[in-house]
Structure formats: C-alpha cells, structure tokens
Amino acid sequence: MTTKPLSGPSAIAALPRNRLIGEFSLWSADLANMERDLKRIDPYVDLHHIDVADARFTPGFLFFPDLVARIAKLTARPIHVHLMVEAEIVEEQTRQFIEAGADLISVHAENGEAGLRAVRLARELGAEAGVVLRLETPVAAVTPFLPEVTFVTLLGTSIGVKGQSLSDKACPRLIEARALMRKAGREADIVLAADGGIRHETVPLLRAAGAETVVLGSLAFGDPDLAQRMAWLHGLKVAA
Ligand SMILES: O=C(CO)[C@@H](O)[C@H](O)COP(=O)(O)O
User: What does pLDDT average to over the chain?
Assistant: First the structure.
C-alpha cells in the first residue's frame, strides 16, 4: 500500500476539484475482513468514509474510535468521519475521532450551536471540518456553517440505513446547496458531496446536479473491477 503523504488534512485540501471524488464507505466493507478489504480498495480510494452512529440520532450504532485508530494504521488514504450523533456528545466525539486519525470530521447541521462548536474544535485540533444534512432538513440549515467548513454533504436517503434508493429530492437539494455556497462566496473552497443511494444509474445524475464527491457503498465493495469503476467515475462530467 502507498505510504505518506497521501493522508492528513492537507490531503483533504489537495483533493482534485476537476473530477468526481470517490469516497469509499467502510460500513459497506466485509466487516469481518476489514484488513483484506482495505488492501483491495486502497489503490482506488480517494477518501475513506466512516459512518459513526450513536443509536439515538440514528436507528443503530456504527463504528467507534478504537476501530478507526486501527483502520488508520492500515491505510495511507485520508479518512472522513461522518458523525451521526446527538448534539450533547458531538464535541467529545469530534475530539476522540481526530485523536483516532480522522483527517476530516463532518457533523450534522441539526446539532445546531454544538455542531458549530465541534467544527471549530476540529479545526483547532488540526483537522478539516464539514457539515451534513439529513434528507428532511431544509438546505438553508447549512448557511451558518458555510464560513467554517470545507465539505458540505447531503444525504440522499434516510439517515443510518444502507441499501436504499436515492430520493427524488437529492438532485434539487444539491443544486440549492451549491447556490448557497456561491452566495456565501465559498463555492471554490467547499467540496459538495452526495451520500446515500449511490448506484450506477444515480451517479451521473448527482454529478450533473453538482456533486463533487459520492459516497460509494455496495457500488464499490460489490464491484470486482475497481480500476474500471473508478476510471468511469473519474471521467463523468458535471454537465451530462
Ligand atoms: O451512509 C450510507 C448510506 O446512507 C453509506 O455510507 C452506505 O455505505 C451506503 O451503502 P449502499 O446503500 O450504497 O450499499
């Protein structure tokens, strides 16, 4: 596997903006064979995506700091931790996952002021910070976060459940988010990401709606030819 300097917050800042970025969601790996799957995907991953869930903000639990620390030792690629947790624990969880090796922490806009404090903490601790929106939350909820984040992620499915189809709301919401980023003067500085419902037929639609990264679950882990899959993904144009 490749070694430094591919990982780290600087690797987040250096992600290419002229092609679609492939985030690989480790929730969709074979969880009993994580090391084997990491070795297989590592040459193709632009950014690892790790879903953290507290079974309160979400239906169930997902990932924890010791596991992320172990994963961070097995890859040279940067790690994006998506914190799906209640507001009262978001700051402490931000600290713990950065200590474990996260390069980018995204918190939910629904966490409100606590989410904003977590974003500031992530940056103080030397990581990049992002904001995520549940599918049912008005897109305008990202506005207070825009001056302080480098990633905006929109969920295209209900939170915390794999294997769902993309909502019809996903593409219009990406277009709305980009307009808000432009209005805030941050369009060039913020990466717009689509998470959930990522399928062969939905990726071109999301790309055309302005997504700059997509979070691949089964589309990546179920594909025997990742070289071909990533060549296809990297070649998709914004204007379809
Ligand atoms: O967060 C999510 C889904 O909301 C992803 O991180 C999952 O990994 C997606 O898995 P698939 O449904 O694409 O198989």
Answer: 95
Q: Is 3 exposed, middle or buried (0-12, 13-18, 19+ CB in 10 A)?
A: exposed
DSSP symbols for 169-206? THHHHHHHHHHHHHHTT-TTT-EEEEES---TTTHHHH
> Using a 6 Å cutoff on CB, does residue 200 contact ligand 1?
no
Cα 25 to averaged position of ligand 1 atoms, centre (Å) = 7
Domains plus CATH for the chain? Answer: 18-235 (3.20.20.70)
172: Cα separation from own chain's centroid:
19
Note the ipTM here. 0.95
pTM tops 0.90, yes or no: yes
Q: Whose CA is nearest to atom 6 of ligand 1?
A: 25
User: Which two structure tokens, joined as six digits, stand for 35?
Assistant: 């090391």
- 113 CA distance to ligand 1 middle (Å): 27
